[in-house]
Amino acid sequence: ARNPRLCERLRSYYIFRHNEGDGDGWKDIVNRTSREMQGEVVQELHSDWLRRVHYFNGVDVDGHEWEVDDDFKLQLSLSMAVEVVAPMEMVFKEDSAIDRLYVIQQGVVGCKGRILKKADPFGEDVLVYYSPEVLDEQEFKAKHGIRWVCRPNGRGYRATALTNVLLLAFPGDAIHELLDRPKYEYIKHQVRRKMFVWQVRHVMITMLRTLREAVAQETYADGMQVLLQKYGFEMLQNVPTINERYMIMREATGDDEVKVMRLFRKMWNRKRFIAAVEGLVKKRRRERALVDVRDELRQSVLKPVAAESYANNLIAQGISTRTLRDFSAMELVTSGLPVVLAKRVYKAARNLPEPDVSWIGADGVAVDSRYSSGKGCVAELERLDAEAKTKKRELMRSLLYAEEDSDDDDDDAGGSSGGGTGPDEPPGGGGGMAQPPGAIPGGPMLRSRLGGGGSSGGGGG
C-alpha cells in the first residue's frame, strides 16, 4: 500500500466498529421490548450520564431536589443516534452548528482542556442555544437583534477524539421538543434558570477576548474601531460598561491619553451626580411641602365642612390655606368642588387671615411659595453654610482685635477714673455693686466701637 498508516487506521476503525456493532444494540432492544421493560432498559443505559448533565437534575429555589423522569429518558433515547469517530478526528469544530448533545459510550475525548471518558456528556450548550446552522454575521445580528451579543454563532470550541470513540448523539430539536411539552414545564423552568449562569459566563468570556484584542491595538482610536466592529455603536451606547472597562485596561498599559480622558470623565460624572442629587432633593422637598400644605388645608378648612376628600383636587389647582381667601365660590366649583361644599368652604375661608404682601404676585394673585420649592436645594444650603462659616470667622477675628484694643483703653483710663463717680454712674462709687464695663451687651467689641471702656464712665471732668 502507498499509505501504510492510513491502512492501519482503517483497519483499527473497522475492527472497533465491528466489535461495537455500530452501537445500535441498545436502541434495537428498546424498540423491540414492552413498555415496562423499555423503562428499565433506558434506566440502565442512560442513568449514569444523565446524572452528570446538571441541566437535567439539581435543587430548585425552594430547596427541593428534582430530576427528569423515566418517560423523559425514554423519549430522549428514541431520538438517539450513534456516531463512531476515529482517533485525532474532531467531533465538532469552533464554527460547527450547535445541534447535538453527545455522550461517550466508548473511548476518550478531549474537550475544553479536559479529558472525558465513558458516560461523560459534552456539548451541553445545545440546551442553552440550539442552532441547526451557522448563520452569516449580518444575518445572525438581524435575527437576534440586540441579544446577539449573548448568543454564540457556532460552538466556539472544539472536541477531539483521542481514541476510537463511540458516541450517543441526541438531536437538539428532539430535546427542545420534549421541554416544550406542558408536562415538562417545571423541568423547562429549571433548565432556563441554570442557563443564565452559562449565558453570563459566555458574555464575560467573549467580552474579555474582544477587550484584549482592542487593548493590543496601537492607539485608543484603533481599539475603539475593534469594539465598534464587534458590538456596533448602539451596543456601546446602551452598555457603557464595555467602553469603561476598555479605558481601564488601556490605562493599565500606560496610555497617558486615556488617563486624561478618564480624569475629565470623572469630573463630568461628578457634576452629573451632584445635579441628579440636587434634583432628587428638590423633588422630595417639594413632595413633603405639598403633603404639608394638603394636610394643613384638610385639617383647618375642609374637615369642619366635610370636604376633606377634595383636598388633592384643590392642591392640584394651587389652592392652599394661604390662597383660599382670594378664591370665589364659583372658582371653587370650577376647581372640582360641588356647589354646596364650595359655598361652605367659601364661608369658612372668610375666617382665614388676609394674605401677606409677600404672597401677592405681580398680577395681584396670592401665590403659596411652598409650591415652587426652589429654595433649599443642595447648592443653596452649601452657599448658606459657606456664608455662615465666613461670618463666624469674621466675628472671631473682630472679637480678637477688640480684646486687644480694650486692654489698651483700660490702661489709659485707669489714671483718669481715679475712683471718681461720673454723673451717670450709679450710687456706690467704685464699689463692687456697680456693673463692670465688661458686662455691657456686646462685650469689649461694643465698648471699643463706643470709644473706649472708661470714657463713658465719667470722672474725666
Description:
By secondary structure, the protein is α+β, with helices and mostly antiparallel strands. It has 15 helices and ten strands. The protein has a four-stranded antiparallel sheet with strand order 3-10-5-8. A hairpin with a 2-residue loop joins strand 6 (109-111) and strand 7. Helix 3 packs across helix 4 (70-78), helix 7 (185-215) packs antiparallel against helix 8 and helix 14 (378-417) crosses helix 15. It starts with a helix and ends in an 11-residue tail after the last helix. Mean pLDDT is 75; it is low at 374-378 and 416-461.
Give a quick summary of the entry.
The chain has 461 residues and is of the alpha+beta class.
User: Could you state the order of secondary-structure elements as H and E?
Assistant: HHHEEHEEEEEEHEEHHHHHHHHHH
The portion of residues assigned to helices is 40-55%
**Which residue ranges are poorly predicted, with pLDDT under 50 across at least 5 consecutive positions?**
374-378, 416-461
Continuous helix count:
15
Largest sheet: 4 strands, antiparallel
Primary descriptors:
single chain, 461 residues, alpha+beta, four-stranded antiparallel beta sheet, 15 helices, 8% strand, elongated, disordered C terminus
Topology:
Elements: H1 4-20, H2 25-32, H3 35-52, E1 57-59, E2 65-67, H4 70-78, E3 81-85, E4 90-92, E5 100-106, E6 109-111, E7 114-116, E8 121-122, H5 137-144, E9 159-161, E10 165-171, H6 172-179, H7 185-215, H8 220-238, H9 240-252, H10 256-302, H11 311-316, H12 329-334, H13 339-349, H14 378-417, H15 443-450
Antiparallel strand pairs: 1-2, 3-10, 4-9, 5-8, 5-10, 6-7, 6-9
